Amino acid sequence: MLADLTITEFLEETASSSPVPGGGSIAALSAAVAASLSGMVARLTVGKKGYDGFEKEMKEIAKDADDYRKKLVKDIDRDSNAYNDVMAAFKLPKGTEQEQEKRKAAIQEALKNASLVPLDVANDAFKIIELAEKVVKHGNKNAITDAAVAVMMARTAALSALYNVKINLVSINDIDFVEKVEKDVKHLESKIISIEREILSYIAI
pLDDT tens digits, residue range 1-16? Predict the structure, then answer.
């Protein structure tokens, strides 16, 4: 499991000639880091003088951030497994016409899954941006730059994941599937860029 490696081991594996972990797994890791930072700032706010009115909100944010972090850690391997499934489909036998058809269908199915996994990561990363926005606005001001880093990490995670969606869509033949996912991608990209700009405008340092 990639998620069980030490930081050093994970980075060495990423730097190796192995195609996994790749950009999709890194996007999931980045989103998990953003969730961790959001949770940290929320916890640094709980019990602090002057933030009494936001204590309940911060506790909820911390819990939600933990849930996203745990899910995204699993997505590190989920994305790599999706890539491996695509590669396995390409290696299926193609000696007969029946085998060729079976191989084509397996490749298409694997490519769809390899598109939906990073799309899921991107959606979660966007939700983390929304959590981070709350800690930027209402959280401990002594940790506001940590909250800002959470926003930027989540933004990068989301956009990175969407790049992985796009590259897989190029090879998918199901027009209806491609059009639907492309629509989701464009809508999410627009929201991500807009919300990051708005949140960072609140930070005056």
Answer: 999 999 999 999 999 9
Report pTM: 0.94
Residue 61's CATH number:
1.20.120.680
Residue 9 lies in a domain: no
The two three-digit tokens of residue 23, written as one number: 């950009």
Residue 45 near residue 111 (C-beta atoms within 8 A): no
Domain ranges, residue 56: 20-200
Residue 32 has pLDDT above 90, yes or no: yes
SS3 labels along 145-182 = HHHHHHHHHHHHHHHHHHHHHHHHHCCCCCHHHHHHHH
DSSP state of 32: H
Q: Tokens in use for 166?
A: 């796009």
The verdict on residue 185 lying in a domain is yes
Beta-carbon count within 10 A of 98 CB = 10
Question: What's the number of CA atoms in the CB half-sphere (13 Å) around residue 198?
Answer: 12
